[in-house]
Amino acid sequence: MTEPRLDCLCAGIIVADHVCAPVERLPQAGELVLSDRLDLTLGGCASNVAVDLARLELNVGIVGRVGDDVFGRFVREVLQDAGVHCEGLTVSETAETSGTLVVNTQGADRRFIHSIGANGELTGREVTAADIDRTRLLYLGGYCLIDSLRPQTVADLFATARQNGVITVLDVVLSGPGDYWDRLNPVLPWTSVFVPNADEARLLTGLDDPVDQATALHTAGAERVIVTCGADGLIVVDADQRLRVEAYAVEAVDSTGGGDAFVAGYVLGLLDQQDVASCLRYGSAMGAHCVRQIGATSGAPTADQLRKFVATHDLPIRKL
User: Fold this and answer.
1) Is residue 296 predicted with pLDDT exceeding 80?
2) Most exposed: 180, 184, 267, 302, by fewest CB within 10 Å?
3) What is the pLDDT of residue 291?
């Protein structure tokens, strides 16, 4: 059977998230604190972006690994129900499905407790030349978190994609401080768009200012760098411009998946061949929809809803 043509192929980490509604405070040792709800939801960069893109009516496939367990079956069911092509979703014989506890506290950023699980077996070689040939854009999410995604393998994959006219989008997940440049240096020169958040960019560059962060990462080779800053908007640096973009004013309930939602909206604009400002508005609007509901993908709008939101809500963008 001929594989379908894709707008985007999403590769990377796939996670089952356990997310609580915001609690008043974190519990003390041995203490129980009540939450209004605790949900099992889809998580992980690759699966979040894939579901959001499918919701935006793009044809999307996924490459990743889950365990042979109830959480792996849950993940596959959610992806398939969303319309994501799951031929590249494989099952580990030895590792459990990756999981994250997402703790939301009122007035504070979310906290994560994560198990790598089956994601630790993903090498990047699962993405074939035939996969590259049938997609318009390749997204890799969760780079730097799992050692099995070796830098040269990822660099070769991105180089093959770029040489075949495929857009490459890179996102990272970092477990703490460290020197990540051995992983980034081979890959960034083949990266069309690099999308870290400000905390990740600080760990990568050692710089506090998002403008300086984006500039350093662009200088390292990425064609365009977008540093997302939550409610403070985002910074864009490429060869032609440096931009500061505000955030849409919404009441955030759960910020989990907000950056992934931004990527999906931005990709929609990119594949629609919109200008940079429109792509940024689509991405920002997608992120704004996401954080208003619990779960990384629960608030994803349709493409029509997203376009109407952008058309009726102003978003300041200024040159730096």
Assistant:
1) no
2) 302
3) 65
